[in-house]
Write a structure and sequence with these properties.
The chain has 376 residues and is α+β, with helices and mostly antiparallel strands. It folds into 3 domains: 120 residues, DNA Polymerase III, subunit A, domain 2 (DNA Polymerase III, Chain A, domain 2), CATH 3.10.150.10; 117 residues, DNA Polymerase III, Chain A, domain 2 (Roll), CATH 3.10.150; 118 residues, Proliferating Cell Nuclear Antigen. A 13-stranded antiparallel β-sheet has the order 7-1-9-10-11-8-2-3-4-19-18-17-12.
């Protein structure tokens, strides 16, 4: 194998891959990046056995030749060293395999030799059924993930809740995440006839959002019984699926409410953020919400040893009871509000110690459910 390539292109591709590689893997070869030179360009692959990322650097980009292949082949080199080395090299890279387990790297008058692994020993990528796939714009997909992934559980005792449930219905993708204290749900309109559902680890989806792709580029999604792949023109992310049955969370969303208020999103978010300064004394960052009258809501928190804060904000509209007085985890409230793009939000209350529903004023595609906190 022998090739020449721009140092910037190679470093960028390796940066995406390097994030998933673990130096603690039981398979030493997984500490490396597989580099393969083919007739169509370079293919780089990295994995931690649960996630595989594959990046392609084609021969030409925008009509300009960026890779010059002088010999086909492949090798696996230790990610830790090759990635750090590339960031410190001054110009274009000339790589040449000396043997199945050794490679030389030249840049200007600098020459480095690295030991590696025989690429034939690298784990094979999962085989996908390319008959079952759906296309989703990258921007739409990552937006739905951002608005839900924060709500997954960090507790490994219920594995299914550590991932985001992705449901594909006719012309619709629904992403759902919950840790049993809050729930985030986002619907996206897509062109699809596939009807399947998967639970994808949150760590894999975080890596997907970090891929350098334009929002308008399409992502092809394929799956097997235990793997899912997100494939763009020059990137592929393979993820092991979470095993176990996801709970029926739709039944948790109230169909009626005793009170609803419409309030400015940005103002509410800033008020809760201020209240969180004094809420850290509590285990759950308690922030208190109280509907004072038909026109105002009070946001407050206190720390016994430090002080307290309270402020009043204008309610745009209220329907139903005006005697709501509850506490919530301020962090949960902020996470929900940050993902809402509309100017105003609607908050629905169903009574004391019942979860509240937060959603945009005019769109039903985004929904958040947050359980209140006991303050005694």
């Amino acid at each position: 194998m022998e090739f020449k390539v721009s140092c910037a292109l190679l470093t960028s591709a390796m940066s995406d891959i390097n994030k998933v590689i673990s130096t603690r893997s039981v398979m030493p070869i997984l500490a490396g990046i597989k580099i393969e030179a083919t007739e169509s360009g370079l293919t780089l692959t990295g994995s931690n056995s649960d996630v595989f990322i594959e990046k392609i650097i084609p021969l030409f980009i925008n009509g300009e030749k960026v890779v010059d292949i002088n010999g086909l082949g492949s090798i696996v080199v230790l990610s830790k060293y090759v990635h750090e080395l590339l960031k410190k090299l001054p110009g274009d890279i000339h790589m040449k395999v000396e043997s199945n387990t050794s490679i030389t790297i030249q840049s200007g008058n600098i020459e480095t030799r690295l030991n590696g692994f025989d690429a034939t020993e690298y784990p094979k990528l999962p085989e996908m059924d390319h008959q079952n796939n759906v296309k989703v714009p990258f921007g739409k997909l990552t937006e739905a993930i951002k608005q839900t992934v924060f709500a997954v559980s960090k507790n490994e005792s219920r594995p299914a809740l550590t991932g985001v449930k992705m449901e594909f219905e006719k012309n619709k993708l629904i992403c759902t995440a919950t840790d049993s204290h809050r729930l985030a749900r986002r619907e996206v309109h897509i062109e699809s006839v596939m009807e399947e559902s998967f639970v994808v680890p949150s760590s894999s989806l975080s890596e997907l959002m970090h891929l350098k792709e334009s929002d308008s580029s399409n992502v092809d999604i394929y799956y097997t019984s235990n793997f899912i792949v997100f494939k763009t023109a020059n990137s592929s992310l393979y993820s092991r699926l979470v095993e176990g049955t996801y709970p029926n969370v739709q039944s948790l969303v109230p169909t009626e409410s005793k009170s609803t208020i419409t309030i400015n999103t940005k103002g509410l978010m800033e008020g809760i953020d201020r209240a969180c300064v004094f809420s850290t004394e509590w285990k759950n960052n308690n922030v208190h919400l109280e509907i004072v009258d038909d026109a105002r809501i009070k946001i407050a928190s206190n720390a016994t040893e430090v002080g307290m804060i309270e402020e009043y904000q204008r309610i745009i509209q209220i329907d139903g009871q005006n005697d709501i007085n509850m506490s919530f985890d301020g962090r949960f409230m902020l996470d929900a509000l940050k993902g809402i793009q509309e100017e105003n939000v609607i908050i629905s209350f169903d009574g004391m110690m019942k979860p509240i529903v937060i959603k945009p004023q005019y769109s039903g595609a985004c929904l958040h459910l947050i359980s209140p906190l006991r303050t005694y």
